[in-house]
Amino acid sequence: MAPPRPCDDESVKTIPVKVKPAPYEVLVEHGLLAKTGKLCAKLFKVPPSRWVVVTSPRVRSFWGKKLEASLAEAKLAFAVIEVDDGETAKKLSNVEHLLEEFAAARVDRASAVIALGGGVIGDMAGFAASVYMRGIPVVQIPTTLLAQVDAAIGGKTGVNLGAGKNLAGTFHQPKLVISDPEVLSTLDEREFRAGMFEVIKSGAIRSKSLFDFAREKRGKILKHDAGTLERIVAESAKIKAEIVAADERESDLRRVLNFGHTIGHALEAATEYKRYLHGEAVGWGMVAAAHIGVEMGVTSPATAARVTETVQAYGPLPEANLADEVLRPYVTRDKKTRNGTPHFVLLKEIGKTVIANDVTEIAIERGLQAMRNASAMRGHAHA
Is 240 known to be catalytic? Predict the structure, then answer.
């Protein structure tokens, strides 16, 4: 028997994520947060005994009242646990703290988690839900653009280790993803722009129309036009959902989602997660990867230039001036490395990719230099 559908409202953009054995949906609509209680009440054949909301103090100050009122109106019993967010908080000790909080709140195997926050909250709450009492359900309510278009979809959870980013984690698919573009109104401008680099990535790997839309509608996007935001969130979510459904565990196709991430993760780790927001690092990583593609004869110079121009259009970005010898140890430790060989996602053209395991040292060096050159040529911020 098919699981209950939480939403039959035709005005809500609904993206199916067809993973087995438990497919779910991503729902996108302006103002959807206020309907969370009704959606959660319809989600299970046997309702959870208790819901626990994991969020950060800052996110709760903006959106907690609306979510909590919605849960109360639906007569759902719930508790709220606040944890720090930000990339430096994404570590095992904080997941352990969260698990202890679950136990103190009397969360049991019949309970369910709601993750209200950006990618870090989603990662830590999802990780905790995946291991608490050997796994309880989670609903993701992403509150950053990056999380709405990428991090909340696909079931990856994880934390950082000293050796690198996201090296400890699990696959734990959510029961539902509720994406409300209205919550993006409280994002600061830097966070919002950081999310746009994941939108650009989605278009670059899979959809020329989305890539071009991001280029052409920059003004409307940066003004947070409601209809424009719904479109980029829904289209990016659809790309992620299709790829995840075809390759849940990142054995093949799903690796294309890592375009820009090999160098991006190295930038983050080498600066101890303090200089770059994740999306900013991915932005510079895409610039480097595009030029690595040129050196490998896969990407045309014109395509690399378009990627660079589009990334810089959503700047300013922190300066990308790290030397090769600083970045290379993190590149080889990246989780996409196989048998000591880094695997790079390269662009054949906008919307089409290839995964290369034969990238030469000189190609990486020249890609990193092209990234540094692009950084030096344009203004930067937050360095």
Answer: yes
pLDDT digits (tens, 9 = 90+) for 187-209: 999 999 999 999 999 999 999 99
Task: Give the contacts of 9 (CB within 8 A, at least 6 positions apart).
Answer: 29
For the question of residue 373 being annotated catalytic, the response is: no
Which candidate in 191, 235, 248, 250 is catalytic? 250
Torsion over CA: 183, 188, 194, 199 (sign): positive
Indicate which residue of 165, 193, 231, 265 is catalytic: 265
**Model's pTM, two decimal places?**
0.91
Catalytic residue among 29, 68, 82, 198: 198
258 assigned to active site: yes
Residues 20, 75, 134, 338: which is the catalytic one?
134
- Assigned token pair, 6: 């939480």
Told to judge if 248 belongs to the known catalytic residues of this protein, a careful annotator would answer no
CATH entry 3.30.70.1290 includes domain 13-186 = no
Is 30 noted as a catalytic residue in this protein? Answer: no
pLDDT in tens, 162-186: 888 889 999 999 999 999 999 999 9
Give the right CATH number for 189-380 from 3.50.50.60, 1.20.1090.10, 3.40.50.300, 3.40.50.1360. Answer: 1.20.1090.10
Answer yes or no: 254 catalytic: yes
**Domain residues of the chain, as ranges?**
13-186, 189-380
- Using a 10 angstrom Cβ sphere, with 0-12 exposed, 13-18 middle and 19 or more buried, the burial of residue 361 is exposed
- Measured CA to CA, the distance from residue 152 to residue 84 in angstroms comes to 18
| Annotated catalytic residue, options 175, 278, 291, 333 | 278
